[in-house]
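Bench notes, afternoon.
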Amino acid sequence: MKKKKNKMRLKGQLRMYMNWPLIMTVLLVAMDIWVYSADKKAGFIMTVFILVYLAIAGGLYFYNRSLILADLIQFSAQYKGIEHILLKELVVPYAITMEDGRILWGNDAFIALMTGPRKEKYLSKMIPELHAGVFPRGDISHAELEVTYNDRDYKVEMRRVSFEGFSQKEELLQIPEEEEFFVAVSMQDVTELNAYIKENEEQRMISGLIYIDNYDEVMESVEEVRQSLLVALIDRKINKYINDVDGIVKKVEKDKYFIVLRKESYNKIAEDKFSILEEVKQVNIGNARSATLSIGLGLNTATYALSYQYARVAIDLALARGGDQAVIKDCNGIKYFGGKKEQTGKNTRVKARVKAEALREFIVAKDQVMIMGHKIADPDSFGACMGLYRAAVSLEKKAHIVINTVTESVHPLYDEIAESPAYEDDIFLTSDQALDYITDNTMVIVVDTNKPQMTECPELLRRSRMTAVLDHHRQSSNAIENAVLSYVEPYSSSTCEMVAEMLQYIADDIKIPSVEAECLYAGIMIDTRNFMNRTGVRTFEAAAFLRRCGADITRVRKMFRDDMESYRAKAEAMRRAEVYRKEYAIAECPGDIESPTVLAAQTANELLDISGIKASFVLTVYEGKIYLSARSIDEVNVQIIAEKLGGGGHINSAGAQFGHTNVKEAINRLKETIDQMIEEGDI
C-alpha cells in the first residue's frame, strides 16, 4: 500500500478567507440558472462571464496560495524566534527541568540568579528546598512553595508539562515513554511583599487583660500603712513592662488592668515568656504573700471587639487554671505561659457557699439528676458522684450515677452500695441505660473532669439542656461548653473536698450515711496520698466534717491495701525504673493485672520518695491504650508536660493517654517532650 502524502493545508479563519472565490462562483452559477430561465441570450453571456471569472480567480488562488504559505512559514519561524527571545529575556526567572530537578534550560534571569562559584546541574544543589520530593508527580500537575535564596524570598511555581512522543522525534535525548514530561519552574521575588505583610501584621492591635489573682489576700498580709505602697509598686511594674514595648495600660479596677499592644510588642514579651509574672512576685515590702498575675490576650482577629472577646475568654481560662500565668487565644488555638507554681488556696468558703446555693436552685428546677465522672472511675470521681447523689436526694429529686467500668479501687464501696436495700436498683446506670433515662427535664452534673471526651458518656452532654461541672483539675482549652454552673478550683486537693464543702450549704442539717461519707473521705485520702500532698486548712475541715458524718478511717484504709500480686508488680516496676537526665523517673507498669492504671498512679507516687527525683512518669497498657501517670512534689509542673502529650491534670499530679500500645514509642515521645521543655525553659 502506498502511503498517503501529508499535504499542507490551511485551516481556521485563513482557510475560510481563501475559499471566498469558490463561494462566489456557486452564487453566480445559481444566478445564471435563474437568468437562463428568463432570457437564454442573457444567460449565455453570464455563463461566459462566470467562466472568465472562474479562470481568473482560480489562477490567482493557486498562484497566491504558495506565496501565502511561504509567508506563513516565515512568520511562524520569526514568531518562534520572538517567543524564544521574550521567554529568554523575561524578568521572571524561568527554567525547564527533569522530574529529578536536573536543569535542562534556563532564561537569562534564572541564569543570573543562580550564578555561583560553579554551575550546578541540579536545582536542589542551589536551593535545597527544591528537591525532587516537592516536584509535581502522578495526578498532581502543579505545585507552589516559598523558598529563601541569597537573602531573598521567592514564590516558586512548578508545572508539569507533558511531551508525548518526544523521544521518537528527538534524536539527542532519550526519555522513557512513561516519563515524557518536563517541569517548568518559575520564581517570583516576593521579598518586598512579605516585608509589607509582616509589617502590617506587626502593626495589628491586640487587646489584653491583666488581673491580680490574690489581691485581697496580699493586702491582708501587709500592714495597712504599707498597702498603698504595695499597690503602687505593682502598678509601676505593670506599667513599665507594658510601656517598654510601646503598649498602653489602663487600670479599670483595683486589681484589673486593660492593655493594648501591637503584634510586634507581643512577640517581644512572648520571647521572654512574660517575665512580668515573676517580676510581680518579687515585690515585697513585708507582705507575707506574693502577688501573682493572670494575663489574657486575644490575637489574630478581624476586629478589635473580637480581640477583646478573645482576651476575656483567655483571662477566664487563666483564672480557671489557677492563675499565675498568661493565656493567649487566637483563631488557631490557645497558648499558655507560666503557671509553674501551685496557687495558694483561699481559706474563705464564700465561693463554695455561692456555688452550692446556685447548684441547689438548678437541681430544684429539674425532675431528675444524672451524675457522672471520668472514664475508669477512681475514688475521687466515685466519691464526688455519691456526695452529689446525696445532695439531689435530700432535695427530693430522682438521681442516678453513670458508671461503665468499676475499677478495683472503687469495687468495695460500689458493691456495698449496689447491694444495700437502702438504695434503689437503678442508682448506677451504664452509658446506654442513661441515654434511655434522660429527658428534657434532666440535669447532668460532671465531676472530677472538665473535658467532654473524658466523661463516662459524652452523648449525655449533647442531649442535656442543663449541665454543671465540678472539678479540681486545671481547665484546658477543650473544656465542657455551655455549662450553667462551672466550679473549677485547681487549688483544691480533690473534687470530694469541694463536694463535702458544698453539702454543708445545699441543705440544712443534711444527713449523710456513713458509707457515702467514707466514699468522700476515700477520694480525699487517695488524691492527697494520706493527707501528705496538696492539703490545706479546708482539706482537713472537709475531712473533719466527714468524720462527724460517720466515716470510718480505719475501714477506708483497709479498702486500699494492695494484694501480694499488685505489690510485687509495683516493686518490679520500681526496680526497672529508668532515671532520665538524673531527675526524672520513668517506669513501665505491667498491664496484665487488675486495675493497672491505679497501680501505675501508686508506683508514680512511690518513685517520688527516692532522693533526687523531681518528677515520676509511669506508663501502662490498658484496653488498647497506653495510660501515663505523672507525679511531682513541687519542683516540676507535670501538668504542662501532660498537656503537651494531650492530657492534663494538676501541677503535681497529671496524666495522659496514647492511642496505641507501643510503650517504647510513648517513652521516646515523653523524653522528647521533656528535652524540648527544658530547652525552652518551661520546666
